[in-house]
Predict the structure.
Amino acid sequence: LTPYASVEWADGLVRVLDQRRLPHEIVYRDLVDEGDVAAAIRDMMVRGAPLIGAVAAYGLALAARRSAAATPGELLADLDRAVGMLSAARPTAVNLTWALGRVLHRTGDPSIGGVEAIKWAALDEAQRIAREDVSVNLQLGHNALPLIPDDATVIHHCNTGGLATVGVGTALGIIRAAHENGKRLHVLVDETRPRLQGARLTAWELRELGIPHTVIVDGASGHFMRTKVVDLCVVGCDRVAANGDTANKIGTYNLALVASVHRVPFYVAAPTSTIDLAIPNGEAIPIEERPAREVTHVGEEWITPKGTLVANPAFDVTPAAYITAIITEAGIAYPPYDASLAALVKRGQAGVAR
Amino acid sequence: LTPYASVEWADGLVRVLDQRRLPHEIVYRDLVDEGDVAAAIRDMMVRGAPLIGAVAAYGLALAARRSAAATPGELLADLDRAVGMLSAARPTAVNLTWALGRVLHRTGDPSIGGVEAIKWAALDEAQRIAREDVSVNLQLGHNALPLIPDDATVIHHCNTGGLATVGVGTALGIIRAAHENGKRLHVLVDETRPRLQGARLTAWELRELGIPHTVIVDGASGHFMRTKVVDLCVVGCDRVAANGDTANKIGTYNLALVASVHRVPFYVAAPTSTIDLAIPNGEAIPIEERPAREVTHVGEEWITPKGTLVANPAFDVTPAAYITAIITEAGIAYPPYDASLAALVKRGQAGVAR
């Protein structure tokens, strides 16, 4: 599907592409236990809500494999400890707890007989989550096709491609599907400060895919909407609340407001695993504060005066009112989102159960 | 006034602070002729619309001083050539052509007798422009005081302080005046990609002034308006059209739109020298496209994949409808701006003539 694998299970190891080294170096890392996996997520060696979920599930499979437990009860206690470590790695993306919950649900099935069977079930569920991520995103991209005009200029924020998922991508998966269906797109790539996932990762993926693109600074989106035709914006998400409020990479809310003023459609690509019906609205979504160094430095280059205070929220919340539609693998949700999202989540879960 | 001088005339040289080396190094450069001055402006060794104007005027004084002309006619021809070089250095800020025009108007006075007197007049006018810049900004900051509440959180974009002017600053001059008048301010400093004038220069100036501040990425302004009280935004400008449309550093328009949605007052600080009544609206303001390297690199750090295309407009235009008020040394202009700006420009010129 892609010339690179963001994550794979390899001989009892989890092998990930170290995204901090892109676009200049392709470096794979082998993670051997759940501590490695938690650190890889926390330090953003891997990032992107769907990928975080899949890698965390593999982390739990690693914990199961390495456990010295003699009984199912001991093994499940080991898994609980691993879940505690993995779920604390990053707070905002709900996919992390969703994926860990799926593995626990599977391993906790009392009908599974014995330690080895539980270990196998953990790995099988992790691999299932990874496989489903690819098929879900293919379907999501297909579902979006009627919304994407031909000859379209698209603004995209952060990275939501194969690198943010197990494969294909969410918002970038939509762009890819439209491209592969013969629609001519030009992508204006928000560079996405502070970590520059757009400039580093999305530009790299679009080049690999052969999709025309131009990198812009985040503050320029309004200028381009005002001075040339921008047909749509499409972004991913880290968590969608029941009412449609959406947490995504910092800068998403500004882009949504600017699009709203210009009446440019603003779409959120959301696998149903990213929709958290347990949270009524965006106020309840925890927003991660990341280290100041992400803002004060770019690589080894120190930007600010030494000692300068920085606020570095990694995400923001875009209220549902500024979102034109939320595109999932189970269909497209339109406002009012309370009803439409609940229906799609139900359909999404039914799809998984099949 | 400040612990540093952005520009000074020193023994027949123009000495400038090399702003590309801030905040980590204080390096002064001596410019010896108009070619040096044009390069310093083009390469952004000096930047900020008012400072560009003052430095360009000094460049013309240098050209006069170095001219080997034997007659007034030859000297004025040399000055015309220098004006051509200097005015081409950067297109957007109107202060550049405004300042050069003032020197030319002075040196072109047929009542001046002889070559040496013309040379003296060129220098005198340049020094007058520089002195006036300081007094204009002090007055502008004073005029703004009624608009600034106590205990205010302010978002500021780019750099508009002593570094962007001969001294004091425009938008930052307002913040400074409020601070010195005992109003407790906290400044959220937009880092201002791509050149990071906020993170590099504004953070440095605010530290020197002892004004509390926090650096944020440009995309975070909406998040802070949504989650905490932001009382106002204040920015500078490179050119204000007759109808109030304002060209300023890229990212200003996004900030204005985000402020508008949140009903946060959005103020533009504009010495009347920055108001261009000859231009009816923002459509006619030339927007400079700067080198791609400003986006692809931070210092020596290469961000994007090699060969990635970049669009790098240095400025954007904020339509007058999103500007709460335009603050000048001659008073505060409110909408409709056609009438209010014309009146203030008249009063500003009268102030200069006094």
Chain A touches chain B through 56 residues (CB under 8 Å). The first strand of chain A starts at residue 7 and ends at 10. Chain A has a mean pLDDT of 96.
